[in-house]
Structures are given as C-alpha cells and as structure tokens.
Design a protein that fits this description.
Shape: elongated
Order of helices and strands: HHH
Structural class: mainly alpha
Number of strands: 0
Strand content: under 5%
Helix content: 55-70%
Distance between the termini: 102 Å
Number of helices: 3
Length: 122
C-alpha cells in the first residue's frame, strides 16, 4: 500500500513540475510581448513629439504672415481684426422645420367622440 502512495505522490509532484514549467515559459513569453509593446509605445511617443515640433515650426506666426504676403494675389487673405468677430447670438441660424403632425387617436379627441345621449335607447 505504501508503494502506491509513494507512486501517487511522485506522479502528483511530476504533474505539478510540468505545470510550473509550462507556466514559467508562458510568463516569459508574455513578458517578451509586453516589452515589445512598450518599445513600440516609446517609438510612437518619440514620433509624436517630432510631429508636434514640426507642427509648431510650421505654424509660426512670422512664417504664416510671409506666406500670406506671398500668396495675397491668389488668396486675398487679410489679418483678422477684433471688430470682425461676433457673438453666436448675432448669427441668424435657419429655423428648424416644424415637427410632423402625429396621428391622433379618435378616442382621445373629445371633438370626434360621438355624443352620448342621456336617454336610454330601446
């Protein structure tokens, strides 16, 4: 009977060792994927920083005013002045269309209900 108990314990220990071995390699693979994703994120953040710097460089006010001066004949852009800006209350928006007529229930409308006479009918 002892030999069966020892054999059972050995099999359980071997099964747990096999499970731990597989979990160890699965964890290492997941950590490798995570480090790859983190490297991609770092690269994308660096690229985003470069794009923001390029955008700020291209949108410098002195550069934009030079472009406006060079292309004035074609674009006819003029500087914005404070009197040109209006509040939203001054904008005349079109009126929304009226809502569609809903079908009325003849039982709910008292004008279309038949009058009930107080006299009993034979």
């Amino acid at each position: 009977m002892r030999s069966l108990t020892y054999l059972g314990c050995v099999l359980v220990v071997m099964g747990l060792a096999f499970w731990a071995y597989r979990e160890n390699y699965a964890t290492q693979a997941s950590m490798g994927q995570m480090s790859q994703v983190q490297r991609e994120i770092a690269g994308l953040r660096e690229e985003l920083g470069v794009l923001r710097a390029e955008w700020a460089f291209l949108n410098r006010p002195d550069r934009l005013s030079q472009l406006v001066d060079l292309n004035f004949e074609r674009l006819q852009l003029v500087p914005v002045e404070t009197g040109q800006v209006l509040d939203l209350g001054h904008v005349d928006y079109p009126k929304p269309p009226p809502p569609p007529d809903l079908p009325t229930d003849p039982l709910a409308d008292p004008a279309t209900q038949p009058e009930l006479s107080e006299e009993p009918q034979p």
